[in-house]
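Late entry, written up from scratch paper. The run itself happened at the end of the previous shift, but nothing got recorded in the book at the time, so transcribing now.
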Amino acid sequence: MIGLVIVSHSARLAEGVCELASQVAQGGVRLAPAGGTGDAASPIGTNAFLVAEAIRSLAEAEAVLVLMDLGSALLAAETNPRRRPAAATVVWIMMIAGFAVTATAAGRLLDPYSPARLVAVCSGVSLIALAVAAAVACAFST
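Output as recorded:
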């Protein structure tokens, strides 16, 4: 079985995405959230130790994929300042939907697991994600 680590700047978002993806995937993948800093005084951000801990928690998985929300920050930075709130909203929605779809696809497409199958599925998903991100970036940059 595949494991997915969901990394977000928000612990609550990472946990919520795991909850949603778990329900959608119906047990086809194991999920672990790695969100926030772990510091109650400054909770928003990422913490490499939390990510490493989440990866270790999936040690029994045949492979672990780490999905991050970094793309939203990059897209927002490249967007016309007047359009940034709309662009960030679209990307966050896409990220959450993408996690749910990836959890479902990973559960179905990677069973039975093999390293070659993992590379093929990750390549396909990456190309699709790149095409969608480029289309959204073009739409919001004008």
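The two ends are 43 Å apart (CA to CA).
(Scratch paper discarded after transcription.)
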